[in-house]
Amino acid sequence: MAIDSRDEKYYKAWMTHHTVSRRGLLRGFFKAGQQTQARIEHQDIARQTGRPPQAIIESLFLRLCNGCGECVSACPYGIIAMKEGKAELQIEYANCDFCHKCTDICQTGALESQIVPDTGLKPVIGTSCLGRMDNFCRLCEMSCPQRAIIFDSANQVTVDKTRCNGCGKCKLACYHGHISLTPLN
Ligand code: SF4
Ligand code: SF4
């Protein structure tokens, strides 16, 4: 579906003057007026998969990503793939280091340099995690550059989703395979 010219013009002008998170971007759109607000709010949808770390809100991403594959080629770690014609982040064998090469090459506005980098993926630590049973394994906690994984004195683990930026290092650090990454909405 083509984005209408009024939305696109407003979006580009707004992005030129603001540094925003995805939530901030959404708020910015709301200021465009009641009519636009209702339309964007109605159209925004839950993210079902990981996206490159500076992807715009999902409803607009799905319209602006044209499946050209430039970001796939640009990513030095090969963690972007095309699925159903849209760029998807697949963190299986390498993490995202936020090099923003994908954003730099994107010509459509689907990836935006002013968005705070966050893949939108958050770790879910399985019940069989060895660290839950004793205080020996702390591989994920030690690997997290954001200090978002915390084990308490009873070996219970929590993930601070406000600190996590979805880099995926914890998943790769857990060679037992007890961490999966899921999209946070
Ligand atoms: S920021 Fe860099 S490592 Fe992360 S997905 Fe984009 S190109 Fe790949
Ligand atoms: S995804 Fe990255 S930032 Fe988030 S908990 Fe894992 S290592 Fe930390």
From TrEMBL:
<dbReference type="InterPro" id="IPR050157">
    <property type="entry name" value="PSI_iron-sulfur_center"/>
</dbReference>
<dbReference type="Pfam" id="PF13187">
    <property type="entry name" value="Fer4_9"/>
</dbReference>
<keyword id="KW-0479">Metal-binding</keyword>
<keyword id="KW-0411">Iron-sulfur</keyword>
<keyword id="KW-0004">4Fe-4S</keyword>
<feature type="domain" description="4Fe-4S ferredoxin-type">
    <location>
        <begin position="155"/>
        <end position="184"/>
    </location>
</feature>
<feature type="domain" description="4Fe-4S ferredoxin-type">
    <location>
        <begin position="87"/>
        <end position="118"/>
    </location>
</feature>
<keyword id="KW-0408">Iron</keyword>
<dbReference type="InterPro" id="IPR017896">
    <property type="entry name" value="4Fe4S_Fe-S-bd"/>
</dbReference>
<feature type="domain" description="4Fe-4S ferredoxin-type">
    <location>
        <begin position="53"/>
        <end position="85"/>
    </location>
</feature>
<dbReference type="InterPro" id="IPR017900">
    <property type="entry name" value="4Fe4S_Fe_S_CS"/>
</dbReference>
<dbReference type="GO" id="GO:0051539">
    <property type="term" value="F:4 iron, 4 sulfur cluster binding"/>
</dbReference>
<dbReference type="GO" id="GO:0046872">
    <property type="term" value="F:metal ion binding"/>
</dbReference>
<dbReference type="InterPro" id="IPR004496">
    <property type="entry name" value="NapF"/>
</dbReference>
<dbReference type="InterPro" id="IPR057431">
    <property type="entry name" value="LdpA_Fe-S-bd"/>
</dbReference>
<dbReference type="Pfam" id="PF25160">
    <property type="entry name" value="LdpA_Fe-S-bd"/>
</dbReference>
<keyword id="KW-0677">Repeat</keyword>
<protein>
    <submittedName>
        <fullName>Ferredoxin-type protein NapF</fullName>
    </submittedName>
</protein>
